[in-house]
Amino acid sequence: MGDRVISSRPAKRITVRARRYRIIATVALFSLAAALQLGRVSSLADFPNNFAPLIAISCVVGVLIAVIVERRLTLLVASGMVSALSALCQTLPEFVRSPPIFTSRPATVRLVSLNMYKQNASPLAVAQWIISQRADIVILLEASGLSADARNLLSAYFPYGFDCSNNGRCSTILLSRSAPLSGGGLARADPEDRKGVSAVWGKFRDEHGPFTVVGVHMQRPPPMGDQATAINDIAAFLDTVPRRRAIVAGDFNLTPWTFAMRRQDHILNLPRLTRTNPTWPAPLPLLPIDQVYAGSGWQPVQLLRGPSLGSDHYAVITDLAAAEGPER
């Protein structure tokens, strides 16, 4: 009997399929690299920049694997390198920008801000932890998750407060131990539908004069929400108060690697104290989307991340001292 001839068709099919996958992956990676930079002009294209560090790490690992497998520089490897470089261009500026200047002087204001999550299974534990922090002012987002017991407990320690709609129908609230000079909501449309800005403010006085605190729960990034309009509304309110002693904190649903965050920093015209410390999602945080801004009339003493409290966010604890020297 003669030798059997084994068909090479399956091997050819595998080769064709592998080549097709390489082409698709190459086009996708080049498209991703372009999209990250198109975020300069398109809020929709800016969305992937929220994950820029993860994209950079994934592309670098992918390039190393491809080099080992391919043993040569291919177009696929090159596309991975371009994508990694594009993502790094978004990530590095946040790591190299000048850090806030901390002071060793005693703090005069302690602020706790937390998106507590509407379906939080332990609202009483959240309230007990907040009280244990001995905060002066508390910003709570998605506070509709508070039980009656938790509300009563917080009210005993923080007898003053406002919500973002001025009628108790908004779950973005500001609580304080001392009586505010004034305060109110900055909601538009139905803030619980997340179709408009969900923000609240309070004006207080310390030994250095009045200061304003704004709590913000920003809509999700496009295409899910209109963040640009919302941040302009916050900036318009800040135009009515002395920015030097203003504090803005909350869940901005944005990371520092996006062009939108850079525009937001410029529009708010306040130093952003928070950097790259991730606050979402708990219990394995990857993205820093909870932010704190403070005017030049403040110096940070410390910024801390709270424990996991049954929310998908971690709390941010901010200790501030009045800045020394002449007004800046």
Automatic annotation (TrEMBL):
Keywords: Membrane, Transmembrane, Transmembrane helix. The chain crosses the membrane at residues 21-39, 51-69. One of its GO terms (molecular function) is catalytic activity. The keyword Zinc-finger does not apply. The keyword Transmembrane applies. Residues 113-313 form the Endonuclease/exonuclease/phosphatase domain. Gene3D superfamilies: Endonuclease/exonuclease/phosphatase. InterPro entries: Endo/exonu/phosph_ase_sf, Endo/exonuclease/phosphatase. This is Endonuclease/exonuclease/phosphatase domain-containing protein.
